[in-house]
Hints:
This protein is α+β, with helices and mostly antiparallel strands and 149 residues long. The protein has one domain: Nuclear Transport Factor 2, Chain: A, CATH 3.10.450. The chain has four helices and six strands, in the order H-H-E-H-E-H-E-E-E-E. Strands 2-1-6-5-4-3 form a six-stranded mixed beta sheet. The chain is elongated. It starts with a helix and ends in a 6-residue tail after the last strand. The relative contact order is 0.20.
Amino acid sequence: MTDAALRALHDRLAVIDRATQYARNLDRQDWAGFRACFTDQLETDFSDFTGEPARTAPADEFVAFDQRILGGVTTQHLIANHEVSLDGDQAVLIADAIASHHRPAEAGGGDYDIHGVYRMVMVREAENWKIASVRLSLRWYEGDGDLLR
């Protein structure tokens, strides 16, 4: 295997690892770890859920938003079937996702499951891949969407 092929394989795995860290830190509510997944400015597009257009803002705002809506909610984000395209210091990951959200009965109860596709654009910063853009396209959902409001 050539050095270039090894580098591409390493980069592909690092991009998938970053997507996994996104999900795991979100589920653990490890907000510092979650923040470490992103560039300082982050484009987000959750318009399929919010009806609001994509926006670019400081990543800290996105982390604070997730902290607020996930307070008291247990989550499990599964990201699978990864497709990674590499172009120098930029990568695009497309992967299927299931995001399960559960609020215990003593806190009002409820479940909300999202089935969709993530598209994450990542850039290499000092040998680390960071998410610069994230979009979650909805396939379908089940349950009470108001759980996250």
